[in-house]
Model the fold of this input.
Amino acid sequence: MRGRQHGQGLVEFALTFPVLFFVFVGMIDLYRIVEVNNAVAEAARQGARQAAANANPADNGFGAVDSNPCSGLVFTGSASGSGCLTDARIKATVQNVLGPFDRVTTLYSNTNAANCPNPAVIGTATVCVSPSQSASATAYADCTTARAALGHDPNPGELGGRQAEWTYPHYQGCFLVQVTVIYTYDAFTPLLGPFAPNFLRLASTSTMLAEY
Done:
């Protein structure tokens, strides 16, 4: 009789263990997804903040990169690095914020949020920066002229490149910089990816008014 009860307990355990396992792993994934989603949002915010910040007059915001750090948390004027406004340094800030979650980050310059591609590999990220770093400025004389010609407030990319605007601030007060970060979450839970692909796509976009 005792052996029969023992055998029944083993069968019940064998039936319930997969369910408990999936619940446990799913709870871990849910916690990690929230954590990664917060990191993606912060990465986009810091990337846009760095790209839009007023450059330190002692630095060359789009010049040669030095060994000093850039920061997406403070004005570039409070940071010590040159080249802090370039696409490459924005990407480095995004990677720093994503930290251990991200194995590879792919940069897409002059790409807005609507056209930012999904990462091709799980556990990697794409970062899209708009407008272009080096395109020339458009011919509008100022913000008022640009608004009248466009018929709306300028969107990122409609007033030319960031370097031209930083060097010659034609559109102070209406020049926008946009950074988008997309990350594909690498789930612990088996089969979560094939059944819920959109659940694993974590994306955030930050658009800020340039201060240069």
